[in-house]
């Protein structure tokens, strides 16, 4: 994506609520977004990329083991002063091709 085309209204959505069934045997007590990849939780890598590409408004859809993901987000240092990371806790797992949540009505902002 060319960050020169982004507007202030651009929001990135990260789906981070799956059960991680394919890696559950390796990390049974950890949600997939928190699995260590090269010294950082997996979720850190797309957040860094989005920051580099100019996305300051990021919405995470969390579900399975959401408290671990939310706790990490709340204690994390933002990548830039303007980065706004919000989360939405899914009440139940999504089915394939499910409708996406409305970011403006259902999310909470992480404040530092």
User: Going by CATH, what is the homologous superfamily?
Assistant: Spore Coat Polysaccharide Biosynthesis Protein SpsA, Chain A
The SSE string, one letter per element, is EEEHEHEHE
Task: Quickly count the helices.
Answer: 3
Mean pLDDT: 79
CATH class descriptor name: Alpha Beta
Structural category: alpha/beta
Strand order in space, largest sheet: 1-4-5-6
CATH topology: Spore Coat Polysaccharide Biosynthesis Protein SpsA, Chain A
Low-pLDDT residue spans = none
Distance N to C terminus: 28 Å
Tell me about the biggest sheet? Answer: 4 strands, mixed
Strand content: 15-25%
Radius of gyration (CA) equals 14 Å
Number of extended strands: 6
Number of domains: 1
Shape field = globular
Percent helix among the residues?
10-25%
Question: How is this fold's topology laid out?
Answer:
Layout: E1 11-16, E2 36-37, E3 40-41, H1 44-52, E4 57-62, H2 66-75, E5 84-89, H3 103-106, E6 108-109
Parallel strand pairs: 1-4, 4-5
Antiparallel strand pairs: 2-3, 5-6
Descriptive notes:
With 112 residues, the protein is an alpha/beta fold. It has one domain (3-109): Spore Coat Polysaccharide Biosynthesis Protein SpsA, Chain A (Alpha-Beta Complex), CATH 3.90.550.10. The chain contains three helices and six strands, in the order E-E-E-H-E-H-E-H-E. The strands form two sheets. It has a four-stranded mixed beta sheet with strand order 1-4-5-6, covered by helices on one side. A two-stranded antiparallel ribbon has the order 2-3. A hairpin with a 2-residue loop joins strand 2 (36-37) and strand 3 (40-41). The radius of gyration is 14 Å and the shape is globular.
